[in-house]
Design goal:
The complex is a heterodimer of chains A (131) and B (244). Chain A has helices spanning 2-5, 21-30, 50-56, 69-78, 97-101, 104-107, 111-130, and strands at 9-12, 36-39, 60-63, 86-87. Chain A is an alpha/beta fold. Chain A has a 4-stranded parallel beta sheet. Helix content of chain B is 46%, strand content 12%. Chain B has 10 helices and 8 strands. Chain B has a 5-stranded parallel beta sheet with strand order 4-5-6-7-8. A 3-stranded parallel beta sheet of chain B has the order 1-2-3. The longest helix of chain B is centred in the last third of the chain and has 16 residues, at 228-243. In chain B, 52% of the residues are buried. Classes of the chains: A alpha/beta (131), B alpha/beta (244). The A-B interface holds A 15-16, 20, 22-23, 25-26, 45-46, 48-49, 52, 56 and B 105, 107-108, 132-134, 136, 138-139, 141-142, 165, 168.
Chain lengths: 131, 244
């Protein structure tokens, strides 16, 4: 249904009662035209699966709430081209905006990458919905 | 011929040795001809000593016990040295890894160095599987996808909860094999009905525990609604191909 409506799909991933990243990958493979957002990047303990999953399925996006800035930085260092696949999320109300926003300088000091993460990437996904 | 693809012997956490005679007796009682046997203490302590101990134990029962090596990828290059030693000098036939107890994710990049050595040695590898967050069937599948020439056994077929993931993976990748120890009866039936028996290998996960474990796990395969031929494959024919 999401594919028909051209909606992106957000999945909470991570320890212990959320989805596992590789399970999300299976879904992403079956619906290659639907963007799948890996909520929380599998935090805490599925962190090792993030890069393999994003390498495997190009329609998986990384949402960064609960992810430490150093983790996002290391993903970007390994794959600078994935700046278009990283999405800022806060996990409010379980978090605070100032604290979540303060992660950004440790993730990147490139203003274009910041704009992408902070809004342009998600806007693009949503535009594809509205189109 | 019945081959148990998944048994353990060695030292318990308190250091007391598991008498291998218990495994041998349980095999005889259940008509099991051969068993692949893994360490216990080698998952969390000196792998070289554990591999030596395992080789010595198995050497007392040639043609019956088939010891497989365990290494610790945290050791980097030293792990590949030990892997080569165990295969060429100790005569071991495959690699067993327990990423959960040993403390690393199957998706950890440290695995590549070990897997490249596995490819070079031309051996199969068996993983404990079914245990998030570091030993899941789909993580193993991704490894198997990247090393297609390696026979990769999901040691517990995904266990009670993740066997559907294990089956899904084995349908996609023909170098993945499914061990039966841990899969419930309905899962085993679904596996053989979907996949056929050629990549299903009976395993008990016995050896260190009560012998009834072996009888029970063997009973699961005997209870499957399948042809005699299929049963023979699962009970030993499939695994015999990996014992080479």
């Amino acid at each position: 249904m999401a594919a028909e409506l051209k909606q992106p799909v957000y999945c909470h991933t991570g320890t212990a009662n959320f989805a596992m990243p590789f399970e999300l990958a299976e879904l992403a493979r079956r619906f290659p035209d639907t963007p799948f957002i890996m909520g929380h990047g599998g935090a805490s303990d599925y962190w090792y699966d993030v890069i393999p999953v994003m390498e495997l399925e190009p329609n998986v996006y990384l949402e960064i709430s609960k992810v430490p800035p150093s983790g996002v930085h290391s993903v970007l260092s390994a794959h600078p081209e994935w700046a278009s696949r990283i999405l800022f999320g806060s996990n409010l109300p379980a978090a605070s905006y100032p604290l979540e926003l303060s992660k950004l300088p440790s993730i990147t000091d490139d203003p274009a990458v910041r704009s992408a993460i902070m809004g342009n990437n998600m806007a693009r996904l949503l535009q594809e919905v509205l189109a | 011929m019945i081959i148990d693809s998944h048994t353990h012997t060695g030292l318990r956490t308190q250091g007391a040795a598991v008498p291998v005679e218990g495994l041998i007796e349980a095999m005889r009682a259940n008509g099991i001809d051969k068993a692949v046997v893994f360490t216990m203490e080698g998952f969390y302590s000196n792998t070289r000593a554990a591999n030596n101990r395992l080789a010595a134990t198995a050497a007392r029962f040639p043609g019956i016990l088939y010891p497989w090596v365990t290494v610790d990828p945290h050791e980097g290059e030293a792990a590949t040295v030990e892997l080569r030693r165990a295969i060429s000098e100790l005569g071991m036939g495959g690699l067993k890894l327990h990423t959960w107890v040993q403390g690393y994710s199957i998706s950890n990049p440290k695995m590549d160095m070990v897997m490249e050595q596995v490819v070079w040695l031309g051996i199969p590898v068996i993983f404990h599987d079914g245990s998030p967050p570091w030993a899941t069937p789909l993580q193993i599948a991704n490894l198997g996808r990247r090393y297609r020439t390696v026979p990769v056994i999901l040691g517990h077929g995904g266990l009670r909860e993740l066997w559907p993931d294990a089956l899904l993976a084995a349908r996609q990748l023909d170098n993945l094999w499914l061990g039966t120890s841990g899969v419930p009866l309905n899962g085993l039936q679904k596996m053989v009905d979907t996949l056929g028996p050629e990549r299903l290998v009976f395993g008990s996960d016995g050896g260190a525990g009560h012998p009834s474990t072996i009888t029970y796990r063997l009973g699961l395969v005997k209870a499957l609604r399948i042809s005699d031929q299929a049963r023979e494959a699962i009970l030993g024919g499939s695994m015999a191909r990996l014992l080479g």
